[in-house]
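Bug report

Summary: structure tokens for Aminotransferase class I/II-fold pyridoxal phosphate-dependent enzyme differ between web form and batch submission.
Environment: batch mode, default settings.
Steps: 1) Submit the sequence below via batch. 2) Compare with the web form result.

Sequence submitted:
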Amino acid sequence: MNDQQHRDGAKPIANKLSRIGDYYSATQLRSDRWSALRDIAEELSLHGVEGRRGRKRLAEAEELFEALAPIETYWAFPGATAFAYMRRLLDQGKIPDFSHTVRRAARALISGAYRRRTIQLTSEDGEAEDFEDEVALSPDARALGRPYFEVLIVDDLNEHQERWLRSNLQRARRPEDAFVYEPVIVPSLEDALIGILFNYNVQAVVVRPGLALKSRNNVEILNKYLRRASDEEEVDALHPDEYGAETCRLVHRIRPELDTYLVTDRSAETIAAMDLGGCRRVFYNQEDFLELHLNILRGVNSRFKTPFFTALKEYSKQPTGVFHAMPISRGKSITRSHWIQDMGAFYGPNIFLAETSATSGGLDSLLEPRGPIKKAQESAARAFGSKQTFFATNGTSTCNKIVVQALIRPGDIVLVDRDCHKSHHYGMVLAGANVVYMDSYPLHQYSMYGAVPIREIKHKLLELKAEGKLDRVRMVLLTNCTFDGLIYNVERVMEECLAIKKDLVFLWDEAWFAFARFNPAFRQRTAMATAANLRHALRAPERVHAWEAQQEKLKDAEDQEVLNTRLIAPPDARVRVYATQSTHKTLTSLRQGSMIHVYDQDFKGETEQAFHEAYMTHTSTSPNYQIIASLDVGRRQVELEGYEFVQRQIESAMSLRRAIGTHPLLSKYFKVLTLADMIPDDYRESGVEAYYDSKRGWQDSWDHWATDEFVLDPTKVTLAVGGTGWDGDTFKTQILMDKHGIQINKTSRNSVLFMTNIGTTRSSIAYLIEVLVSIAKDLEDLLDDASKMERRSFDARVHSLVEQVPPLPDFSRFHTAFRDGDTPEGDIRSAFFLAYDEDNCDYLDLDQALKEKLENGEELVSASFIIPYPPGFPILVPGQVISREILTFMRALDVSEIHGYRPDLGLRVFTAEALKRVEKEKG
């Protein structure tokens, strides 16, 4: 064992485990260490401890106990008493008892059984019966159990004091309690921060007056959590009297969904003047454990409540006579049928018992919510950090149109990233916006676009300002994060834009980013969290001075200097932010379940009525109650276990990165695209290039999330597959889906995207790796047996996919018939409806007629949205001039699905006569 392995407390255990440095997270490390300890315990039970093999296994078991000891202090199960008991059994040579106890503990941890029943481990508890694995239980059986969680208590106690504290909390329990919890007691502020990031079971934190500052643990993989959670210099500067309040503040900043309680012996007046973050209650120098116990349960119950789902369940139990629309209500049209009984058998009775078009009987109206739907939306606003949240049952496409219609009036100018979802483009048509399309930076090598640099956004705003049109600029619309995982520095974008126009509205399409609220690093780049932070920052006195100084410096500055300056928003800027999220895409919800989150200082006074009308316009009068209920339940889940699920999702994606990067055969044909591959150097001021490097290992690089212009969502893994000789679409359809049953959404010409989600398991990752290895082995065999000509053909395909990639075109421009002056905004609505008259349009073949006309210098204008899949966004919009670059790109596309294009007729364009007529009418 080398020095590094010794420091990490790691040694290969039965050739199954690598050193600690190979693990991305302590959670995975803990799970694997317990599995290894179980394997060793079973081997010792079978073969004994004698001989070289037995002594080696004993030494490995002792090392595992040493490695687990500091980690287990942050978890309630198996707990210090049981852990010490297992260690004692090993030291005393009681191998059968040791093996039995370790096996039970490991099995309970892996299956999660300890979270629904007490698992007896020590002999003092008596002989325990075998328990069922969680996965073996029926959903009904699991639903009957009381949910389990853990409470982190922060206090530096001796053994006697800790026993006293635990026994008092134990006595406070009552049979009627809706939940059951176990305490985890840690001594210091630093341990509290490690605990809330490491232990996903924690739902409440109790900060007591005796806490220390520093942790006595010094395990590198745990210290990573600490470095992400706090500023060491600021923490070190604290006075002991501030430890409790600072712990509450930091817990709220890192995991705002957790309940915090402060027990203090300081005066009420002193405490009242302090910032305690989201502290639910302060207890003054008392040991009323029943009151503390009841508050803990009440806090968790406030997140557990699902107003609409509960109302729908109660409605389904009522005997009801149905005399309204919907024969399927109560399942009557199915149970009485002789031909569709299989549908009833497939879905079960509850979904039909809960189906109705009624809004009474304890239910509510989505269009005018006053009861449980309103409460459910208020709970969602709390969970996602918004001022108002609205549910949608027909997807984020509709959410986007609602927000655009509510805020945009005909003639308003909107800055839009041109590779956003098609719903935004159609929303611009409906609202009558004048659109300024902004170009994302291209990733030509991988046939995909990145995101819009802040410099591009500022340039467009300054261009409009110079032409006297800034007053018409209403909104900036961006996608965060993109389909490929690129995430904006949301705070920088909004602040620099507000520095140019202080009343801009921002719409952030976070369709793929709903989960981000529930991870500290991700959260800082979400629209709602940034809106709250920016509003708070604008009020700071130092902000006024900084803004005034910058204004003086830039008084006579040229645009170039403004572009090169990190701008400061004025103190009186209005924070007006909207985010649309596809809950069904990244969290738990039925398909088409989405939310609109609002953080708009002017919503009540300016936008509320227009928003209500837009919501009425696009929302069905017969919304699906099952979708609404699933949104309610999905909110409950993320408030109570979102952190755990997102953390596991990140771990899964990171494991996939490491497996592909370190496997010699996989790395021969595949490459996981890194931060450096997807984000040019100019936008990565931190210099961080990858999350994992096969030579340097894991890069503890979360700091770059606070600084870089763009970061990469680690849960999305883009795999370059050009080295296999298959294009992305072929690899997706014929290899992954048809042959191996692996489903994915997104491809480019030479890449595929693997999106992990909160349901992704380690087994799913293992299967994907097995499939990729199998594909690589088949390629090896194929090429090994290939003739010279077959090998040349393969190399040519690879060369074409990797080297001969058509350049991605930028947005060209709107034709002058749809523009007003020299600025880039275009009247997309006029162009869209002009094409309704077929006499205004013609069709041109891509290979002949269109090419010849362009070569002859004719200006051709698209009459339709042209949307190839991939990339899945319009490469042409109505009114856009067709450039040679766009034609070249379209001719090079080898995808079968291009919306708006007629292969039998060609590309739809406006006739020259129609364009001249529009220009003449404009005068």
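Above is the batch result. After comparison, the two runs are identical; trailing whitespace caused the diff. The two ends are 84 Å apart (CA to CA). Residues 123 and 280 are 39 Å apart (CA to CA).
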